[in-house]
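User
Here is a favour to ask of a fellow structure person. I am asking you to supply a protein in sequence and structure-token form. Please set it down just below, with no commentary around it:

Assistant
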Amino acid sequence: MQNLLHRLMEVAPGLEIDLVEGDARGLGLALSHGRLDIGFLLTEPRALISTPAWRERVMIAVPADDYLADTPSLAWSDLADRRLLVGRPIAEVVCDLAARRLGAGAAASMGQASCPASVARLVALGQGLGLVNEGDAARVTGVVYRQLARAFLAFDAVLGRRPEKPILRRLMALLAGTT
């Protein structure tokens, strides 16, 4: 998302951006009720216009002293029998991925935190391994990040129910040039 917003600022230098973070349900409602112009979501709300925006790798937050820290890329099988932690807003999607790859029991026992930085702090305390999207990998002492092989999260740009603004056409054009 950061790269996309930087490119938007290049084509609209005076633009002021307000970022609103939340879960997909809350953001979807805000978009549906016209309180937001655009949202970047993992799951698109029905009845709203969306387009693919970008993909990010799923990263594993690993304690620096864990044997997995020496492996540059991990597989789902490396995570079996380990306590897994995930933060909002990606928790629902990652739990679904874990259920498909590791079984329903792994997803049901997954610990959740309020945000990716909290996931990293819990990992540093030895509370498990964290699953975060690449763009939210927080720098925390004692934690390293390893990519999860062939695991990506696809974000969509979802337009809200507000009168369309010219800047949104520019943003959508930037997206069309990257997908």
